[in-house]
Amino acid sequence: MLANSLSFQKHYCDYCDVFLTHDSASVRKAHNSGRNHLANVKDYYASLGHDKAQSIIDQITSAYESSGGPPPGGFGFGPQHLGAPPPPQFPMMGGFGGPPPFGGRA
């Protein structure tokens, strides 16, 4: 019976003091974006002094950067892509490109 309970890992959230149902990226992502979790994280860092909070943030950042972080340029989507229109499409020159002009022959 104990072996069945150890067959899958559960993720523990230190901020919320709960075990998540599964240790999968989707479950952790959903939990971490939840209202209660975000409030708990905010309360935790607010209870620390500014210097201590900055020290923890620096430790997390350096660990993230040393592990490789995201690919260069991000994931191909983000705020940098939202405001720009798509690049213009130029017609091909020569060859049998498209249909003849409306109403007649070329």
From TrEMBL:
Nucleus recorded as keyword: yes
Q: Which stretches make up the Matrin-type domain?
A: 11-43
Asked whether the UniProt record includes Hydrolase among its keywords, one would answer no
Quaternary data: Component of the U1 snRNP. The U1 snRNP is composed of the U1 snRNA and the 7 core Sm proteins SNRPB, SNRPD1, SNRPD2, SNRPD3, SNRPE, SNRPF and SNRPG that assemble in a heptameric protein ring on the Sm site of the small nuclear RNA to form the core snRNP, and at least 3 U1 snRNP-specific proteins SNRNP70/U1-70K, SNRPA/U1-A and SNRPC/U1-C. SNRPC/U1-C interacts with U1 snRNA and the 5' splice-site region of the pre-mRNA. Interacts (via N-terminus) with TIA1 (via C-terminus); thereby promoting spliceosomal U1 snRNP recruitment to 5' splice sites.
InterPro entries tied to this protein: Matrin/U1-C_Znf_C2H2, Matrin/U1-like-C_Znf_C2H2, U1-CZ_Znf_C2H2, U1_snRNP-C, Znf_C2H2_sf
- Location of this chain's protein in the cell: Nucleus
Q: Tell me the GO BP annotations in alphabetical order.
A: mRNA 5'-splice site recognition
Q: Which taxonomic lineage does the organism of this UniProt entry have?
A: Eukaryota, Fungi, Dikarya, Basidiomycota, Agaricomycotina
Primary location = nucleus
Q: Which UniProt keyword terms apply here? A: Metal-binding, Nucleus, Ribonucleoprotein, RNA-binding, Zinc, Zinc-finger
Give the region (Disordered) as residue ranges: 63-106
Assigned GO CC terms: U1 snRNP
- Name of the molecule in the record: U1 zinc finger-domain-containing protein
Instruction: Please give the Gene Ontology molecular function terms for this protein.
Output: pre-mRNA 5'-splice site binding; zinc ion binding
What's the superkingdom here?
Eukaryota
